[in-house]
């Protein structure tokens, strides 16, 4: 977990949406969301639909650069771009590789887009949509290339039974897990009943705020996102599952996620210890064991103490070594120019925001 008072192993973001790097400053929806599903319908699903390859590359590059700056050396990404599916996983992989960050991507298949490309309410007994078929084909193509990846599913309530079955079969074929949002909001309550037939220990069960029954897999806790979306506190400690931490696309700062995981746990239960949230943070290394060989150097001399870090707000990363390569030195990225990445990402964000404004 730690090698000396100033260093840790590489951190892992166990659930990210790298495309959301371009969402900052996006135009507000014309109608303010009044529940979680309206947040998805009026913000994120519209953003997903506007993405193209240039946007994907620079959003992933910015997210990966910010990951290194915060000591995160591996990202498990969950991606969706329904009008730009084919080749999308290669674009994300290339961007992260160029920066020097490990990435395990997936494409989040869904049937919420009908065969005419319009949003629809999903009848779970209906046939799989063309969009879901293309998403699964993109996943299979990427996994067959030998790159590390997972099979992505958006959420049970936006997928037919046929799609869930096909995603599970594909994961088993490539001996990987399914990366899926489960019971994040009230619209997905009971999702575990449809998924537990397929789920195994390789699965990532993301959020689990409204889980009512046990389900196999690692629960990925995203406290900042859950608070931001007002979906409730997940209480991940109530389950026997391994728990890891994700950011759900807010950023790649997993030490900040640890600190809020502790605060959220303490707000719910005065006996909650930062040691437990610290364990959740470093459980990410069990998902990406290569990060155990990474070295992250911090400016703070008590990085081996959860009790110190939980109450310290001035932490920052000075150096990062991945595979014995110094990819960050004295706070500076070594492979790329951060100002250039930010400039290119800003150009793409303006394109994205314009597309969103035109579609509103």
What does this structure look like?
This protein is an alpha/beta fold. The protein has a single domain, classed as TIM Barrel (Alpha-Beta Barrel). It has helices at residues 36-50, 53-69, 88-99, 130-144, 161-173, 191-195, 223-228, 254-268, 274-282, 284-287, 306-310, 338-359; strands spanning 7-8, 11-16, 72-77, 102-104, 108-109, 151-155, 178-182, 204-207, 218-221, 243-245, 295-298, 317-322, 325-329, 332-333. The strands form three sheets. Strands 5-6-7-8-9-10 form a six-stranded parallel beta sheet. The chain has a five-stranded antiparallel beta sheet with strand order 1-11-12-13-14, covered by helices on one side. Strands 2-3-4 form a three-stranded parallel beta sheet. Helix 2 runs parallel beside helix 3 (88-99) and helix 4 runs parallel beside helix 5. The longest helix is centred in the last third of the chain and has 22 residues, at 338-359. The relative contact order is 0.17. The mean pLDDT is 95.
């Amino acid at each position: 977990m730690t090698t000396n008072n100033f260093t840790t192993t590489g951190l892992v973001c166990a659930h990210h949406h790298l495309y959301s790097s371009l969402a900052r400053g996006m135009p507000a929806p014309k109608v303010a969301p009044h529940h979680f599903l309206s947040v998805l319908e009026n913000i994120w699903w519209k953003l997903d639909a506007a993405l193209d390859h240039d946007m994907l590359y620079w959003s992933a590059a910015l997210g990966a650069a910010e990951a290194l700056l915060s000591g995160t050396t591996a990202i498990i990404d969950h991606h969706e771009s329904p009008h730009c599916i084919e080749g999308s996983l290669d674009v994300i992989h290339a961007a992260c590789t160029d920066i020097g960050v490990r990435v395990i991507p997936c494409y989040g298949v869904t049937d919420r887009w009908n065969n005419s490309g319009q949003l629809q309410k999903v009848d779970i007994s209906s046939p799989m949509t063309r969009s879901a078929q293309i998403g699964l084909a993109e996943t299979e193509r990427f996994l067959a290339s030998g790159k590390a990846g997972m099979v992505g599913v958006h959420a049970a309530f936006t997928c037919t039974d046929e799609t869930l079955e096909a995603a599970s079969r594909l994961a088993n074929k490539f001996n990987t897990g399914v990366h899926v949002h489960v019971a994040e909001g009230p619209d997905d309550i009971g999702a575990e009943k449809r998924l537990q037939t397929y789920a195994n220990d390789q699965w990532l069960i993301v959020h689990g705020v409204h889980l009512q029954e046990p389900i196999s897999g690692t629960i990925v806790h995203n406290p900042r996102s859950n608070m931001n979306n007002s979906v409730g506190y997940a209480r991940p400690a109530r389950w026997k599952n391994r728990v890891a931490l994700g950011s759900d696309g807010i950023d790649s700062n997993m030490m900040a996620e640890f600190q809020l995981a502790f605060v959220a746990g303490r707000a719910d239960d005065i006996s909650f210890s930062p040691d437990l949230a610290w364990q959740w943070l470093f459980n990410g290394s069990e998902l990406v064991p290569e990060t155990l060989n990474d070295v992250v150097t911090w400016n703070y001399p008590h990085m081996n103490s959860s009790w110190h870090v939980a109450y310290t707000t001035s932490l920052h990363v000075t150096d990062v070594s991945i595979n014995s390569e110094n990819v960050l030195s004295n706070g500076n990225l070594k492979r790329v120019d951060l100002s250039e990445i930010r400039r290119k990402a800003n150009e793409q964000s303006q394109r994205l925001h314009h597309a969103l404004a035109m579609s509103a």
